[in-house]
Structure formats: structure tokens, C-alpha cells
Amino acid sequence: MSCANVTDCTRQFKCLLVMIPIVFTFFYAFIFISKGFQEKIENFSVVRDRRTTVVTGYFVLTKFQKGNKPLYFSSDLYKRWCSTFSLLLNPLIVYLERNSSFVEIFKKILSKHEPSRYKIIEVERKDLWAFKLLPNITKIFSKPGYPKHPPNTVVPEYSAVMHCKYELMNRSIVENPFKTNYFAWLDIGLFRDFAVSDDPYYFVKLINETLFSQKFYLDVPDNFDRSKVAYTEVYDLSKNMKPCDIVNENMVWVCGCYFVGGGEVLLRWCGEYMRAVEEMIGQHDCVSTDQQVIYWLFSNRKNLKVSTSIQTYTNMSSNVDPWFYLGYLSRRKYKT
Fold this sequence. Notes:
Number of domains: 2
Low-confidence stretches: 23-49, 199-213
Distance between the termini: 49 Å
Largest sheet: 7 strands, mixed
Shape: globular
Radius of gyration: 25 Å
Number of strands: 11
Helix content: 40-55%
CATH class of the largest domain: Alpha Beta
CATH topology of the largest domain: Spore Coat Polysaccharide Biosynthesis Protein SpsA, Chain A
CATH architecture of the largest domain: Alpha-Beta Complex
Number of helices: 12
Strand order of the largest sheet: 5-4-1-6-9-8-10
């Protein structure tokens, strides 16, 4: 600070004395408001909806190509997407490989939650039904001329992981540690837009939806028929399609990233699904992901005597990714 004479210095000094308490007042007000806001952000102990247990899982795979474009998914990407589970308020079951780095990652992510509302279950591939299919899946994928739809028909472990969802859902329903009536499978990456990101536009998204307002729980969707299992419909379903034709064309009816239903209905559905995978491999010598298995079952529902019914939800006007529509439709923002 410089001044031309003593009078100017005195005037500037008085102005400074006036400004100091104002600055400190704003500073302490900011600290007080921020502290209260932070407490709200960190208070993850309240579970708004205890009717639906959310089930998820992750198995470490080597970096793989997703689709025919030069798009690759790695474990680092999934680590970032995992952060969205700090915002989820439902009872939660997470299946992870024993001694995987993701065990500690999820423990840290969920550290603000009540320990009584989540379970991290460590499993080994050798004990899982889906991974016992891996030798047969690998053999099928290695056949000359087998279609290449990365990673669905290229990475055998990826196919096994997709089928494993139904095995893990079955186990969750049987054990039902949170005594809920409904269960939902949620892929790690469905709510990726809320993940901690190095995307330069990430903070623009936070302007539209602050970190606090992102806290959410998942409920059954509106107009849900409790006798069915709900999925997002992505494309139309053609009738009487052969399983290998479905695999060859990489046909999709519903997205497998999120599905929800009542415990008894899902238990029956998981059993039907797992038997269908074994039949597809054993009798038809072809396999891909859960989406192709579901397509085959409902394309031939009468002939295959499928007892489960699927209720589909289609993104007609929302700006949400059409593959993720049901997840966002089921999402309820937490309000104090």
C-alpha cells in the first residue's frame, strides 16, 4: 500500500480497519455454511428406501475393446465409476474377488455409510457356476469363423461375468440379509455421469445437480407389475430366432445393466436364465452375453416354456442414455 501523504495513509488505514471485520464475518459465515453443507453431504447413514436391495459386483478383467469402435475399458475406468456407490442409499450387496484391490476401494467408498446397510462379499472364481463354464465358452469362441463382437464373443471371461450376475442375484435373494421384498441388479457403470472424473466438463454437470442433490435411492419403477421382472427395452424383439443367429448378429432386446423385481419372481427367473445358458452352450454350441440369452428365451418363449414375464420400459423422450433408462427411471433423489 502506498500513499502520497499522511492524510491519505490515515484514510486508507481507516478503510482497512472497516474492511477487516467485514471480511472475517464473511469468512466465518462461509465456514459455518460449508460445515453444515459438508455434514449433509457426509451423512449417508439415512436409508430412505429399505424395500429394495441393490446387488452389484466386479471381476477384474484385462483391458478390453467395447464394441467395434476404438473404445477400450480398463480397471482404472471402473475404479472411477465405483465412486457413484457413495451416493446410493439402498441396502447394498457387493461381490468382489478375494484379495482384489476393489475390496479396499469399496470399503473406502462406503465408509460414510452405516456398516449395517451394506455387505462386501469376497468370492473366488473357482467356486462360481459361471466361471466353471469358462472352458466351454473359451472353446466356442475359438471356433474358426465364430463371430467377433468385442468383448461379447471375444473375451471368454467377459461372457462368464455377464452370466455370473444371475448366479449372484440368486444367492442374494436366498440369503436376503436385509430382509427386503425387492432386488435390483446394478452394473458398476450405469450412473457413470455422477462419478468422480477428470472430465473438464464434470463441474459443469455439478452446477446442474449438486453433490448433495445427487444422493439417491432406487425404488421399483412407476406402474411396475410385481409379477414381472423389469428391464430397459433397447430394440424390438423378433420372434422364433435361432440362438446362433442371435449371437451371429449380436441381437439385443433388453439391456442387462439394470433389472429389478420381487424376490420370488427373480428367484424363478435366475433359475430359468441359468438353465438356458447351459442349454445354449451344451446343445447349440454358441454363447455370448446375458442380452443374447434373454433375446433367445423370449423370442421363443412358448417353445422354451419360459414362465417368467418381463416388463419393458423404453426411453421415448428423455435425454438419458436409452440403455440406462430404467436405472434413471427408478432413481429417487434423496430429500431431507
